[in-house]
Amino acid sequence: MSYVWMAIIGFLVGLVARALLPGDQKLGMIMTALLGIAGSFVANFAGRAMGLYGAGGAAGFIASVVGAIVLLLLYGLVTKASR
Q: Which of 19, 43, 45, 62 could form an SS bridge with 67, CB 3.0 to 4.6 Å?
């Protein structure tokens, strides 16, 4: 059941990140959810590397949104370069 919640929260994080970042991102629903989940992982990894979270701690919602925005910016740079 935790994977279902992770997917739901990841989808919400992805939606918030796409809403906060200006521009037109051509991502579907599945890519939005994957973006949010990956953003959570990025925020968790970066937080542990900086010493903000302990070994068992997890990133919060806002940190996950920031991680998703970073990934969305990188996605935009990669797709712009390939055009």
A: 43
